[in-house]
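Exercise 7. Given the components listed, write out the predicted structure of the assembled complex. Treat all entries as one system.
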Amino acid sequence: MSGNIKQAAAAARRASQLLATTPEAVRDEALAAIAAGLEAARERIETANAEDLQAAAQMVADGELARPLVKRLNIAGGKFAAIVEMVGAVASQPDPLGVTQAATELAESLELYRVSVPIGVLGVIFESRPDALVQIAALCLKSGNAVLLKGGKEALRTNQVLAEVIAGAAAGVSGIPEGWLYLLESRDDVRAMLDEDESIDLIIPRGGNEFVRYIMENTRIPVMGHADGVCHVYVDSHADLDKAVRVVVDSKTQYVAVCNAAETLLVHADIAERFFAVACEALSARGVEIRGDERTRGMISGNGKVTPATEADWGYEYLDLVLAVKVVDRLDEAVEHINRYGSHHTDAIITEDREAASRFLAAVDSASVTHNASTRFADGFRYGLGAEVGISTNRLHSRGPVGLEGLTIYKFMLMGDGHTVDDFEGGQPQGYTHRPLAKAWESDI
Amino acid sequence: MSGNIKQAAAAARRASQLLATTPEAVRDEALAAIAAGLEAARERIETANAEDLQAAAQMVADGELARPLVKRLNIAGGKFAAIVEMVGAVASQPDPLGVTQAATELAESLELYRVSVPIGVLGVIFESRPDALVQIAALCLKSGNAVLLKGGKEALRTNQVLAEVIAGAAAGVSGIPEGWLYLLESRDDVRAMLDEDESIDLIIPRGGNEFVRYIMENTRIPVMGHADGVCHVYVDSHADLDKAVRVVVDSKTQYVAVCNAAETLLVHADIAERFFAVACEALSARGVEIRGDERTRGMISGNGKVTPATEADWGYEYLDLVLAVKVVDRLDEAVEHINRYGSHHTDAIITEDREAASRFLAAVDSASVTHNASTRFADGFRYGLGAEVGISTNRLHSRGPVGLEGLTIYKFMLMGDGHTVDDFEGGQPQGYTHRPLAKAWESDI
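Answer.
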C-alpha cells in the first residue's frame, strides 16, 4: 500500500517537471476538457454522490458522523453547475507562471530574470466537500503543480469518480503528462504520503485543529495552512457604535463554524458601557452567549446572560455562538492581548481615528488585519484571488488566503554571452552595472 | 543553559513585534550607529580577533582546525574597513518593509492592501568568518527581523565583541527594542534553539552539507538554505567553443570550494571531440582531474589524465579540482541527468541556439539556470541583491541567492467603513468590484 504511494509521489514529481514547461494554452485546454468531462459524467458522479449520501445518512443514524457534514457532501442540483463553472473561472485567471518578477542587467549582454514557476508536487488533504477536490485539482493544474489528494472518507465514492473523470479528461489533451493527479483513499495512504519528502514539496491540510497539528508533527515536508483561527475584534474608544455593532455581529455570527469568525471581543473602557448598551441586544438576538471578564460583567449589569470568562477563554476557538469579551484601557493593551492569545489569522479594529487604525494594523502580527470591516472577509474569493487552496498563518511563502500565486515560486534565469566571474573579479575586473531592466523574460520556444 | 536560550528566543519574539513597526529612518539610524560603533571599537575588536587567530594557529598545529579557516577568520586591515562599509551599503538599500505588493478595491470604500512585513525571528548559524555576523545582523535589522546568531567556535572572542558592540550601538538609538540580537556560544545553545519553534520562524544554516542536514533533521522550525551544491554545465551541439571553454573553466576553477562551482560537465556527442580538443588542455592547465564516462575516455584518446567515472561520480560534490564528464546524445538527456542527479542549485547551458537555451532554462528544475554564463554568478552580490544571507534550494518562500526581500513576508490590510460579509452574501447582496488599485498603502502614523 505505502509502496503505491511512493510510486505515485515519484510519478507526480516526474509529471511536475513536465507540467512546469507546459504552455498556458495547453493547461487551459485541459481545464476546458475537465469542465466538459464533468458535465458528460454528471450522471455517474451524482450516482456515486447519492451512494455516499445514503451511507452518510446511516452513519449519522449510528452516531458516527455529524449531520452538518452530510449537507456539505451533497453536490446535486445547482451545486454541480457551480463546480463546473468554477473550473472555467480558474482557467480564465491570468497565468501565474512565467511572470517576470524582476529583471536586472548585471553587465553588457548579461541579463538576469526572476520568473515565476510551479512549486512542484503538493499533497492536499481536505474535508468532506467533494467540490474541494475539483477546485484544488483545477488550481494545481492552472499553476503547473502535480497533486496528491485525500478527501473525507464519507465522500470516497464521489471523489473516486471525480478524480477519474478529471484525470481522464486531462489525459486526452496533448502535452499533459500522466500522473499529475492521484487520489489517496485511506489514512494509511496519508501516513505514507507524509514520508515522501523527496517527492513532495508542500502539504496543505484543510480541516480541524487537531488534524492539522497531527500533520505538522508527523512530516518533514513543509506544511502550509492554519491550525487555530482565533480572530479578535477590538472596539476602539473612537469607534462608530453602529459600525462596531454591525462588524462584531457579522464577525461572530455570519458563519460560526469557520476559522475567520471572531472568538474574542476587546472593548476600550471609554466606550464600553455605551457599546454594550447596543451590542448586547444585537448579539443576544442572534443567540450569542457572552463570556465576560469582571469589568464587562460589571457594565452589563443585571444581565444574566453573561457568564464569567476565565483565562481559558482567551485564545479559545469556540466555532460556536459564544464570544469572550474583555474591557481594555488602551489600544496597546488590545494589541498585546491579540499578539499573545491570537492565532495570527485575522483581527479587526473598529475606530474613526485613522492614526489608531494605522497603529493597530502595523502592530498586530496577523496574516490579515482589518479596519472597520468584518474578519469574515479573510477569504480567497472575497479578496479577489479567485478560488483559494486555503488560508495560511505561516510566516513563510504565503500568508492569509492563498490563491494561484501562492502555488508558485520563482527561478532565476541568467542570460550571458560567455561571461565568467573571473572577468569581473579577476586581474582587470570590469564592474557590474546592476541596472533594472523594464522588460519581461521572453522564451524562444 | 537551554533556559537562557528559551528566554532569549522569547525576548527576540517580543523585540520582533516592536521592530516590525519601527520606521525605516530609525532602522537606518541604528545601522549608522553600528557602523560608527564598530569604528570606535576597532582596537577591542582587533585584539579579540588576534586572540582568536593565535588560538586557531595552535589548533592548526594540533591538527584540530583546517588552515583555510584561519585565513577567513582574520578581519585585520582592509577587511575591517570593508565590514564597516558593508553596514552602510545595507542601510542604503531601499526599505524592504511597507512595500505594497498588491492593492484591490473589493467594493466601495472597502480596500485591500498586501504589504511587506518582517518574517519575525531568525536563527542563523554561520561559518568562521566574523564578517558574516556583521552582515547578517545588518540585513536582519534593515528588514525588521530579530536574530539569534551562532558563529564558528574559533571566532568566539571576535564574535562576542562584535555582537556586544552592535547591540550596544543599536540600543543607543531611540525606538530600537532590546533583545533583537543574541549571540549563541555553544553547540548546546544551537540544540536548544532548534526546540524554540514557538518563538523562532526560520533557521538559516550556512555551512557544510552534513551540518545543514543535521539541522534539517533536528528541528520543526522551517529551514532555508542548501545542503549540496552540485552544479552542471551542459555544452550543447551548437555551443561556441571559445565561450564553452571559458565558462566551463570559470565554473569549475574560479573558486572550487563553494556551492556554485560546477561539479559535472555534460557534452553533446556532436561537438564532444572538438570541445575536448581545446577544453582538456585548459582544464589540465588549471590542474583539474577529469573523471570521464566511457565515451568521454574514448574521445580523449591517449590522455592518461582521465580516470573512469562511476555511478557515484554523478551528483557528487567534490568541492575540489575534479570534474565528472559525460557525453550525451540529446539536450533532453542532459536535462534528465541534471534533474535526477543535481541539487537544484545552479546549472548552465552553453549554446548559440536560442531555442535550445529556452528549452533547457524552462526544463531544468533549479533555483538558477544560466545561458552562456558561469554558474559562479549565482550569488546575492553579483545578482544585485546587495548582501545575501545565503543561497536557497528550497521551493518555498525564497530560492537562489537571498537578500533583504527574502527576509520579508506580507500582511493583508483591509480598510472598510463598517462593511460586513452579510452585506455581500446575505439577503440582498451587493457585488464585489475586485478592481485593481494603482496606489500604495499609506499609514496614518
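Discussion: Residues 42-61 of chain B form the longest helix (20 residues). Chain B has two domains: 2-225+400-406, 231-385.
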